[in-house]
Amino acid sequence: MKRFFNNAVALCVVVVVLFLIVPLPTFMLDFLLIVNIGLATMILMITMNISEALEFSIFPSLLLITTLFRLGLNVSSTRLILSNGGNAGTVINNFGQLITGGNIIIGIVIFLIIVLIQFIVITKGAERVAEVAARFTLDAMPGKQMAIDADLSSGLITEEVARMRRHKIQKEADFYGAMDGATKIVKGDAVMSLIITLINFVGGLMIGMMSGGDFASVLATYSIATIGDGLVSQLPALMISTATGMIVTRSVSEGSLSVDVIRQFSAQPRAIMATGVILILLAMIPNTPHVALFIGGGALTVGGLVVQKRMESQKAVEEATEQQAVVAPEEMPSENDYFKDINNVYSLLTVEPIEMEFGYSLIPLVDESRGGKLINRIVIFRRQYAQDMGFVFPSIRLHDAASLGTNQYVIRIRGEEVAQGEILVDYLLALEPSNPLGEIDGIETIEPAYGIPSRWILPENKELAEIYGYNVIDPLSVMLTHLSEIVKKHAYELLNRAETMQLIENLKQTDPELVEEVVPKVVSYQTLEKVLRNLLKEGIPIKDISLILENLAEALNAGRDIDAAIEQVRGALARTITRRFCEDGQLRVITLDAEVERRIISSLTRNEQGTYLAMGADLMQQTVGQIGEYIKKFHELSQTPIILVSQVIRGYFSKMITQFYPDVYVLAFNEVTNNVQIQAIGNVTMEMSAMPEQRTVNT
């Protein structure tokens, strides 16, 4: 039985196809016509009660099935009309009598009006809306993906939520793409209904006249049957077409259509009252329907007044609640009195690990008593970053600064400014796509975290900006994303001795034997701190602290220096590094030619301070220049630039190249697992044209 229900839709489609071939009795046709009307009504009701299109994602396929069902019934009814002398069942006959009302000309005119309304107004409009929605949805996909990545990196969402949101975006693109094609089916169905109606009418007249009937009776019989058949098929088609237009316009709804209409109309009481007054004024003009206009105008005016009073009373209750929540600020001593105590002066010498200062206008984003959510968002980001990287960054000191502009903020690491930005609280930031579909009015600016050209736009322009392909972000998310990127970039500076010891104390709970054996007998806290800092600086998670300790102790026991020990630790973290930088099983990289690597290896120099890279000016210029050109390709792909080299030179080459390109990561071949497909974006070679020319001087 379960298998039967699983294949019920497929069986129904096969039966519908058979309608095109197998004749149906009149009682069966009557039943199926009623089912068709009921099914179309149910689909229309569903589309009016959903809040987003994906709640009815089967609609494109259902549209094809219902159209095929309707055409099958049309073929069956046509067969009965032409073969049974115009008798195609009770339903068709009753609908024909209803619309003609004893006058065939009126019936034909009304039927044609209904068909033309569906074909020209609803079907044509739904087709255009579906086409535009499909194009805009596809164009907006990159911006939505960037928004998900930004929320994930700032800790606002988890990896699971990000995966679900990406899947939803893909489903939206597939849905609107399918709807774009499905509306063509609705248009074809409207055209086909006109053709079938014409066939029924002309064919019926020919068959009736050839059978010896008089023209008047034949015309009456077949016209009623034709109009009834057309109306029975066009009513469901009209409802399906309306549902099609309804579902492709459910883009910015927050609830069902009924809820949205009531809420949004009731939010404009002045407009309602103004309309009522206008109708009353029109009623005073001679020769107008005075009673109807007075009743309508009075009802709208009274309704607007009721809605406005309700809104005012609700606002008064909210203001009273806010006033009760206000607490009188405590009296603070003056600044001079506070610093009379010499112990308080020492508080000025404290250097905060992370500090964020705000202008006056940004305080509501931070102050929890005024609805600020920045602190909660920072807590979420700290937890997400700890899960990803294995490091808990310290608390962030948040305070206002009178020296800043009202819309400015500054981020400091250990007391020194590392970044600043400016946001407009009452606006939204629209990130400009590579090829916008239109230009939106706004204040031009640069997104502070990633340097993307953007515009500050008014909230009412958000929908238009998204249609043009812009990715719209609220001010709080802009500031938090900037803060999260700064924390990631400077995390290695925030890891101090106390944090290192805390990590070891945490490891004692799960692996006390390893800690007792290694720390600090083999690996000192100073050495471990240096290794962990190096890993964080190059974007490598330090979550697997036990694996790091084991390999670090092994390397130091083997007599290797700290740089070689770090490379061994990185090799042991190959799976972690691969997961960190690999995307969809692919790793796009820049490689070095064998000759370039050979010359770099020959440039390694050792002295009392250790080994360092002493590249010639020509080799460095060629290498840096070519890598700069290849990095542009990574930016076009919106990916992190990665250089893949041999393990021998990785550490030294990374120190050299990050001086020119800080956002580039250098990996070794042994740090990438075998199950990854490596794709070389470019290969750095020795350019002969750039080699110094040999000249002979005659004396």
Structure description:
Helices cover 61% and strands 10% of the residues. The chain is of the alpha/beta class. It is elongated. It starts with a helix and ends in a 15-residue tail after the last strand. The relative contact order is 0.06.
Strand content: 5-15%
Strand order of the largest sheet: 2-1-3-4
Shape: elongated
Supply Rg: 37 Å
Give the structure's gist in a few sentences.
With 699 residues, the chain is of the alpha/beta class.
Record keyword descriptors for this entry.
single chain, 699 residues, alpha/beta, four-stranded antiparallel β-sheet, 14 strands, disordered C terminus
Question: How are the SSEs placed, and which strands pair?
Answer:
Elements: H1 2-6, H2 8-19, H3 26-49, H4 59-83, H5 90-100, H6 104-153, H7 159-210, H8 215-248, H9 257-266, H10 269-283, H11 290-325, H12 335-338, H13 342-345, E1 354-358, H14 363-366, H15 374-389, E2 396-400, E3 408-413, E4 416-422, E5 428-431, E6 443-446, E7 453-457, H16 462-467, E8 471-473, H17 475-489, H18 491-494, H19 497-508, H20 512-518, H21 525-537, H22 545-557, H23 562-572, H24 574-581, E9 586-592, H25 594-602, E10 604-607, E11 610-613, H26 617-636, E12 642-645, H27 650-657, E13 665-668, E14 677-684
Parallel strand pairs: 1-2, 9-12, 9-14, 12-13
Antiparallel strand pairs: 1-3, 3-4, 5-7, 5-8, 6-7, 10-11
